[in-house]
Amino acid sequence: MPAVFDSVKDHVSLADFFVIAGEAAAARAHLTETPADMFAEDTLAQKFRDGFKFGRTTQKTCEWTYGRMPNPEHGCQGDDAKSVDGLKQIFVENIYNKSSD
């Protein structure tokens, strides 16, 4: 992959590149057969291409995510008694329950 990104790095941020790569993989996986035109009307690839917005910036650090994503060492459930967040605490109780704030 580095060689692929190197060929476009003057035009696309690494963050945008990862989104493009993910959407390309999803569009390809969604195909039941190889079409003559990957971007034919109503294909997932066409929808991704036409709806793509450039402009993501690549962050060199991710301290801003602390407390927003689960620590994989704590497992899915975490431990309420030890105040250790897991998937349940992060997603169900924190993100999806924001309306109760």
Provide a descriptive summary of the structure in words.
The chain contains four helices and no strands. The protein has 101 residues and is mostly helical. It folds into two domains: 2-51, no CATH class; 63-100, no CATH class. The radius of gyration is 19 Å and the shape is extended. It starts with a helix and ends in a 6-residue tail after the last helix.
Main traits of this protein?
extended; single chain; mainly alpha; 4 helices
Task: Reconstruct the topology from this structure.
Blueprint: H1 2-6, H2 14-30, H3 44-51, H4 87-95
Q: List SSEs in N-to-C order.
A: HHHH
Gap from first CA to last CA: 43 Å
Low-confidence stretches: none
Mean pLDDT: 80
Number of strands: 0
The SS-based structural class is mainly alpha
Radius of gyration, CA atoms, in whole angstroms: 19 Å
Write a brief caption for the model.
With 101 residues, this protein is an all-alpha fold.
